[in-house]
Amino acid sequence: MNRWLAQAMLRLPRSWLAASLKSAYPKPAHRSAREYLQERLRNMDGDAIRRERAEVNRFDLRARLGEVRAPTLILVGDLFGRMARSMAEESARGIAGARLVVLPGGGDPSNLLVPEAFDREVLPFLREGQR
Length: 131
Prior knowledge:
The chain has helices spanning 2-9, 14-24, 31-43, 46-58, 82-94, 110-113, 115-129; strands at residues 73-77, 99-103. It has 131 residues and is mainly alpha-helical. Helix 5 (82-94) links the parallel strand 1 (73-77) and strand 2.
């Protein structure tokens, strides 16, 4: 369903998609995310994006998660939806030592919607990797 929905949305007129961003990211705190996505929308090649999305939908490495040996931090926003949270949880279970963090108020993209919470998790994780 998600695969079909993403493909269908990418076929909508860009003006409709731009308007939908205003309702998807209505809060003043969402301004940077909304502006970033609007800019991406203005500059996207619709055919290329549809092809890329089709490849992303076919890409499935769940069976290989156990091969990951690098320290892994998995972030997912609590507003991202049940499917995204489920995928994040499955990834965390499949990667030995992975740490899953659910960001309150986070969605897509959490680094722009809740930058302080995102940085609070990511920066220490990156610093640990430098030691």
